[in-house]
Amino acid sequence: TWWQTETGGIMISPLGGITPTKPGFATLPLPGIFPVLLDENGDEIRGNAVEGNLCIKHPWPSIARTVYGDHERYIQTYLSTYKGYYFTGDGCRRDEDGYYRITGRVDDVLNVSGHRLGTAEIENALDEHNKVVETAIVGYPHDIKGQGVYAFMITDGEIKDTAEFKKELLDLVTKIIGPIAKPDKIQIVPGLPKTRSGKIMRRILRKIAANDLENVGDTSTLLDPAVVEDIKNGEPI
User: Fold this and answer.
1) For residue 210, which of 123, 138, 111 has the smallest C-alpha distance?
2) Structural domains in the chain plus CATH codes
3) N or C of the chain: less Cβ packing under 10 Å?
């Protein structure tokens, strides 16, 4: 499924027992919801097998009306990026069957050798491996590619043959997305830095990936602040 706090309810979802599902896809919009994909110029990208910025074309009953105490922020964040559309901030792919797959936050898109890659897309590919519990992808400065792909990963139990495990992961990403999306570094971690609401603090992971260990920032809001030190002390496989 796909939804946001600001949408007030689920927007894209299969209907139980009716809609055939696909792994990694939110599937189809619910009745009365009109998602569109827009390019950088704000033009609708029509047809299937396309990718763009996910927006909603028409209002719906549960849409957020404002940001408390700051209505201008609401207007600027959701209604001004593309005039006449609700801007979700998510990148999205619509496949040949018209199914929608979220590729990640627009501001979480990596630029690898001129290719734009959504972090969620790479995470979903890695999560297909039966030994992977959860993955967080961030970019880090790379001398040749501009940005490298760094994967922080929680696994199901200890991995004894890390070389073979890494090969399986890289082959999996190549098969699902393509070789350009293969992680440059994969680090197995005991946990990820999450807030109490479950949000991954990617800014911390970006600092660690860039080896800027002295500037990870405040960790007091994390559910388990100690996990940051564990990650800092670890190394890629």
Assistant:
1) 138
2) 2-104 (2.30.38.10), 113-232 (3.30.300.30)
3) N
Tell me which DSSP letter residue 195 carries.
B
Please write the tens of the pLDDT for every residue from 185-200. 999 999 999 988 788 8
Size (the chain), residues: 237
State the number of CA atoms in the 13 A half-sphere of 66 facing the CB.
Answer: 5
Dist CA 128 CA 125 (whole Å): 5
pLDDT per residue as tens digits for the range 13-25:
999 999 999 988 9
- Contact between 87 and 76 (Cβ < 8 Å): no
**Distance separating alpha carbons of residues 3 and 7, to the nearest angstrom:** 6
Strand runs labelled E in the chain: 2-4, 9-12, 35-38, 50-56, 86-94, 100-105, 109-112, 115-118, 132-142, 146-155, 185-188
Q: For 54, list phi and psi in degrees, rounded to 5.
A: -75, 125
